[in-house]
Design goal:
Elements: E1 4-11, E2 14-21, E3 31-32, E4 37-38, E5 44-51, E6 54-60, E7 70-76, E8 83-90, E9 95-101
Antiparallel strand pairs: 1-2, 2-7, 3-4, 5-6, 5-8, 8-9
């Protein structure tokens, strides 16, 4: 199951892509009392949004973003039935992607 939930909306020639990504987004500065050490950094570095295999947005994230980030992007040129693909990569080398169609 994907960690990404995608919703799309078309209005006045603009396509809005909203995504919710399930990810812990650890800064590497939080203390774990049980383990007696800091929790290692684990955060999304990059998010890419593609429309019909054309990159429409690329976001670089850092430890400043909270757990389970919500991202919204608007662009022109989308049509009903077109493919949207969202991909992320984190600092530990993990990746995920999800596809949706514009509704």
């Amino acid at each position: 199951m994907s960690s990404i939930k995608i919703r799309t909306k078309q209005e006045d020639g603009l396509t809005t892509v909203r995504m919710l990504i399930t990810h812990p987004m650890e800064t590497g500065r939080r203390w774990d009392d049980l383990a007696g050490r800091t929790i290692p950094a684990h955060f999304i570095r990059e998010v890419k949004i593609e429309h019909n295999q054309r990159l429409v947005a690329s976001c670089e994230l850092s430890t400043a973003i909270s757990r389970d980030p919500y991202i919204s992007v608007r662009f022109r040129g989308g049509k009903t039935g077109d493919k949207i693909r969202v991909t992320w990569a984190d600092n530990l080398g993990n990746t995920d992607s999800a596809e949706s169609t514009i509704g």
